[in-house]
């Protein structure tokens, strides 16, 4: 029976992906910053481990606890919505530390075992925002575009060791309060620069309208991740659900 390790499993895409692998009969190691937030179904094939993907020591400890990992799903990440000018370098570093550097760090931790066994799959959860330019998502988009580039290059350098690497790109996720959530996030981090306020409000309104149309569900993402993990013919860059 194969084992998958998935990061960021307390909610959303990660939780649904863990549930999908459990339903398919896999052993699942579900990691999250706070295991007390776990809502996954009870199973003797499930282990829940605490993991902050920006903590190198904890990554190393989790790999020891996990043992053999056949599939890694790098799902943990954070969003960000603001203009470049309105984003502090501290926030830029936080976004890249979580979305990009942590993806690399967890890959580096799992690769020696996969390389020795000459088998394994790594699936990085990216974003459809990387496929076209979108205002106010510049920093977030850059962090996820880096994940795509990483995935494509790593797929080439690891193929000789029998390791596949793919990226799943979710489309817009459903939310009934997109505008309110976006505004709350912005206000908590100092708001938009005054010069961008009008443009930002118009952009958020358009995003809110788009979120009322076809969206990517957590089930869509879980389905795409499972395909990437189990189908050798899967493309390296795999969109999931709605654009």
Short description:
The protein contains seven helices and seven strands.
Question: Please, how many helices?
Answer: 7
Q: Which structural category fits the helices and strands?
A: alpha/beta
Distance between the termini: 34 Å
- Strands in their spatial order, largest beta sheet: 3-2-1-4-5-6-7
Give the radius of gyration: 18 Å
Overall pLDDT level: 91
Give the uncertain stretches in residue-range form.
none
Give the helices and strands as they follow along the chain: EHEEHEHEHEHHHE
Helix content: 40-55%
Q: How much of the polypeptide forms β-strand, as a percent range?
A: 15-25%
Give a verbal description of the structure.
This protein has 243 residues and is an alpha/beta fold. The protein is built from 7 helices and 7 strands. It has helices spanning 12-23, 56-66, 89-117, 138-158, 178-188, 197-210, 218-230; strands spanning 3-6, 27-32, 46-50, 71-74, 120-125, 163-170, 237-240. A 7-stranded parallel beta sheet has the order 3-2-1-4-5-6-7, sandwiched between helices. Strand 4 (71-74), helix 3 and strand 5 form a beta-alpha-beta unit. The radius of gyration is 18 Å and the shape is globular. The mean pLDDT is 91.
């Amino acid at each position: 029976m194969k084992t998958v390790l998935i990061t960021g499993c307390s909610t959303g895409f990660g939780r649904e992906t863990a549930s999908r692998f459990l339903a398919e009969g896999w052993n699942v190691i579900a990691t999250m910053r706070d295991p007390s937030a776990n809502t996954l179904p009870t199973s003797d094939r499930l282990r829940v481990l605490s993991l902050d993907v920006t903590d190198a020591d904890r990554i190393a400890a989790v790999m020891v606890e996990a043992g053999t990992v056949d599939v890694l799903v790098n799902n943990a990440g954070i969003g960000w919505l603001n203009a470049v000018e309105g984003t502090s370098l501290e926030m830029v570093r936080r976004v890249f530390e979580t979305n990009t550097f942590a993806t690399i760090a967890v890959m580096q931790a799992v690769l020696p075992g996969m390389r020795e066994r000459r088998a394994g799959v790594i699936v990085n959860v990216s974003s459809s925002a990387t496929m076209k330019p979108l205002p106010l998502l510049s920093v977030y988009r850059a962090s996820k575009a880096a994940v795509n580039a990483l995935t494509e290059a790593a797929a080439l350098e690891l193929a000789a060791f029998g390791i596949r690497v793919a990226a799943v790109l979710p489309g817009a996720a459903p939310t009934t309060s997109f505008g309110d959530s976006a505004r709350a996030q912005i206000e908590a981090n100092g708001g938009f620069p005054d010069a961008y306020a009008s443009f930002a409000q118009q952009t958020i309104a358009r995003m809110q309208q788009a979120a009322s149309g076809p969206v990517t569900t957590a089930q869509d993402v879980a389905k795409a991740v499972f395909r990437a993990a189990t189908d050798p013919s899967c493309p390296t860059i795999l969109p999931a659900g709605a654009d």
